[in-house]
Amino acid sequence: MFRPVATVSIEAVTVTRPARLTGAALCGALVLVTAVWILKDLAALGSPTDLAWYWAGDRSFLARGRAATSLVDPVLLVASAATAVAALRSRHAASALAATGAATLALRLPGLWTPDGAALVTALLELALGAGLVLVAAVGRRPPGTPYEPLPGRPRTGPAVAAGILLAAAALTAAGWELYWAVRLPAEITVDRFTGGRSVVQAALAPPPGWLAAVLAALYATAAVSALARARPTRALGLLAGAFLTARGLAGTAGAVRYGILERLADLPAVHRADVLTSVLGLLAGTAVLVLLAGRGAPAAAPAPYPPAGAPPPPPHPRPPGW
Question: Are residues 187 and 73 located together in one domain of the fold?
């Protein structure tokens, strides 16, 4: 008898072995490019601590050198390294490759109009690598070979809803701050915040602050919708969004602690107080998202058993001798 063919949903797919190897290699190249720039900045500033404070927004020691990287770079480095591991071993390889590739494309796109030649070459290279990750995630999918092959699962309802609410709040907060600055600042400066004009001082590889806020707001919102819908890409999108949210919150909170701003929070103007609270709450929310989505997802449904073979055929008629 013929065995029934198992039906597979659009999301319930895995990744071919060549696609996994290619994705891991592309992620390794992203890690290498970013690591070279970070090592160059370490040589310029002379101290990992100074570089970390530079990423956090402290520019008090610029006389010793100027870094080309920003807080985006170490987060992308960690994300690329984690995606390389996921590409080789995880059932969520496709969504991890797509999320990291899309984030790289969005964050490196402003590098195309940077006046720095080395930064432009880096942007072109990383854009090509990011596009390669998205392409590998798209064309390297395949249906499972057997009903028992591990497939990307959905997150559990409670953690997914909680993470979705936190990410939605982060998206609204990021968008709200950009609307606030768009109203308060002159139109020319607002445009420069998205294009990296002369009025904006930033590291060579850093995306303009307005552009970065818009990309992160879109990332938070996409991850929030995915989490609330308990979609299969939630783990990859949510962990990436949580990493950026945690890093930005940690940077702002560390600066506030270093200069004693938290101790005199009540004496600050309302805008500065809201900025500090945004960093602290972002750190807490980002950490919570990472914890909520890092655990195991909902158990997958067991595949349907094969139907019974049925009754044996009747004996032949007439029966042969000795039957």
Answer: no
The verdict on residue 303 lying in a domain is no
Tens-place pLDDT, residues 229-272:
999 899 999 999 999 999 999 999 999 998 888 888 888 899 99
| Domain shared by 160 and 291, yes or no | yes
Q: What is the pTM of this model?
A: 0.86
Any idea what the CATH number is for the domain that residue 38 is in?
1.20.1440
Q: What is the pLDDT of residues 116-163, one digit of tens each?
A: 889 999 999 999 999 999 999 999 877 666 555 566 778 899 999 999
For the chain, the three-class secondary structure string (H helix, E strand, C coil) is CCCCCCCCCCCCCEECHHHHHHHHHHHHHHHHHHHHHHHHHHHHHCCHHHHHHHHCCCCCCHHHCCCCCCCHHHHHHHHHHHHHHHHHHCCCHHHHHHHHHHHHHHHHHHHHHCCCHHHHHHHHHHHHHHHHHHHHHHHCEECCCCCCCCCCCCCCHHHHHHHHHHHHHHHHHHHHHHHHHHHHCCHHHHHHHHHCCCCCCCCCCCCCHHHHHHHHHHHHHHHHHHHHCCCCCHHHHHHHHHHHHHHHHHHHHHHHHHCCCHHHHHHCCHHHHHHHHHHHHHHHHHHHHHHHHHCCCCCCCCCCCCCCCCCCCCCCCCCCCCC
Q: Residues 233, 252: one domain?
A: yes
Domain of 70? 13-143
Instruction: Note whether 46 and 172 are same-domain residues.
Output: no
